[in-house]
Amino acid sequence: MKLNSYLCLVSCALCLCFVPALLSSCSSTHRQQKDQVLTIFHAGSLSAPLRQMAEEFEKQNPGVEVQLEAAGSVTCVRKITDLNRTCDIIALADYSLIDRLLIPNHASWTMEFATNELCIAYNERSLFVEELSENNWFEILMREEVRYARSDPNSDPCGYRTILTLKLADLYYPQGVDYEEIVAKDQRYIRPKETDLLALMETNTVDYIFEYTSVAVQHDLHYLQLPDSINLSNPALSEYYARVSVEIAGKEPGNVLEIPGAPMIYGFTIPDNSKNPNLAKKFAKFLINPEGGLRVLKEQGQKPINLQLSPASILDPQL
User: Fold this and answer.
1) 114 near 303, Cβ under 8 Å?
2) Handedness of CA 148, 151, 152, 153 (dihedral sign)
3) pTM metric for this prediction
4) Was domain 32-115+266-314 assigned CATH 3.40.640.10?
């Protein structure tokens, strides 16, 4: 009995010695994992490629957790400028938002990395789809029984690019396009970002949506490819696109921000308030690697920019 009691006492003593050490070890591991969190604010249209990039980056970097937070690009910017939130990388569907709204107070550089184009997406149940063509899509959208959706221009570049495309269509087609009537129609189907429109299509709530081609491809939607003169895809048409513009809500109540027509170029940066700037730089290098992030973009139906055309950006000391 005495021996058993002695052994119990020894066992308890050893437990008391090891438990604090074990707790300390767990706490250290928890801190290490927490320190390896990479937060990315990003445009909704980048959700699919960034999800795949995050998975590959985490496999290459054990212990790293990539947290993705999607929103309209304008909303992403305002999380930093208005709400004082922090992230390690912000990747937007319009690089100019970084130049105009984040630099110089919240960031110091921009990296352009991808392009896209606007299309009209639909499914097999969409009304009058058998008649749809690049010469009459605007007439079909105006039919009373047809419902269409677009994203909010004050939150999302796809939203203001939709209006720019409608204005360019008015210049492009000989008969003109009553873009003001189209914009005024079906406003109850406006959503914060372009990927929010997918649910409206899947439930057959609407017949057509203005969408990025990459998103349509990723979600197996049918889509009408619009002419280069209006789809904002061709850098050679920069001057032509700039003939139109749209105003969105500015930083202060009552202020407006004028957005000129321009080719679609995606961009990212590492904000000044990044909590893990070194890890952010590592992900940035992965993102612009032809065998890394740029490969993923191609696989997801989006065109990467040939970064060899921008050697100054690649050699940026921030990266």
Assistant:
1) yes
2) negative
3) 0.85
4) no
